Amino acid sequence: MKTTNTQKLLTGVLVLQGLLLGGQFMSQPSAAQARGEVSLSNPSERQLQMVEELKSLNAKMDKLTAMLAAGEVTVKVAKEEK
Question: Of residues 45 and 59, which shows the higher confidence score?
Answer without folding.
Answer: 59
